[in-house]
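Annex B. Sample input.
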Amino acid sequence: MTDSKRPLWTDIWKLSSDMVNCKECHAGQHQAHRELAFVHRPTCSSEGPGQYPYIELLEVLKMVHYADLPLPTETHPAWLPPKDGCAD
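Annex B, continued. Sample output.
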């Protein structure tokens, strides 16, 4: 079993004002083309189908946003163990 972690977005991509670039091959994609799959240079080890760095970044930002919000306790109260010690 390998002990490898999934790389962070910032390990793979570099973001500038309106462009994202691969840190390895330096290929770029303008924000205007964010809904198209990213195209690496042919020799890049990160080259592969279905890479959407802008959409991935948006998902990361959503996770950060929701991680900072308190849990809605009024709609989902905290679980408490049964008083008699038995589960239903």
